[in-house]
Amino acid sequence: MDGLSGIALLEAKLADTFALEDVDEARSVLEGYGAEEWHRERDRVWLAVIKQSGGSVVQLQEWVDLACRDYRDALAGAEYPESIRLLAQESSSPEAQAARRRDAQQYRDWLASSRSAPDDRLP
Predict the structure, then answer these.
(1) Cβ atoms 57, 26 nearer than 8 A
(2) Is the pLDDT of residue 123 over 50?
(3) pLDDT at 81 over 70
(4) Containing domain of residue 110, as a range?
(5) Which of 36, 60, 79, 109 is the most buried (most CB within 10 A)?
(6) Number of domains in the chain
């Protein structure tokens, strides 16, 4: 999985996250974000909403709807889940700093993970 970027990474994460019969519908739902000029960082947002959907097309739609209102909310939950939970604590606390490091690592790990071999991917 290392080295994948752009559309290849998005397609790989779709194939890893959704059942084969749901991939086309999930791809269609994703198209709901990115069409407007104020929609920022489309690929990054798509990855974030895919991750948070848990493989549910219904959840994916809810995350896409949220991203359309404020894309940062969608990014935060995917990229900084522990830090979000620790917002009430002082951000310079050792626990908050450790949470930020774990958050960054878990997101890198998720991006690099794969349930299937590259040959099993959809075209």
Answers:
(1) yes
(2) no
(3) yes
(4) 6-114
(5) 60
(6) 1
Q: Is 113 exposed, middle or buried (0-12, 13-18, 19+ CB in 10 A)?
A: exposed
Is residue 1 situated within a structural domain?
A: no
- pTM here is 0.72
Q: How far apart are CA 73 and CA 76, in angstroms?
A: 5
> Does the residue 106 lie in any domain?
yes
Two structure tokens written together for 8: 């290849």
Q: Do 57 and 18 meet the contact criterion of CB atoms below 8 Å apart? A: yes
Q: Six-digit token pair at 62?
A: 């809810």
DSSP secondary structure of 53-114: HTT-HHHHHHHHHHHHH-HHHHHHHHH-HHHHHTTTS-TTSHHHHHHHHHHHHHHHHHHH--
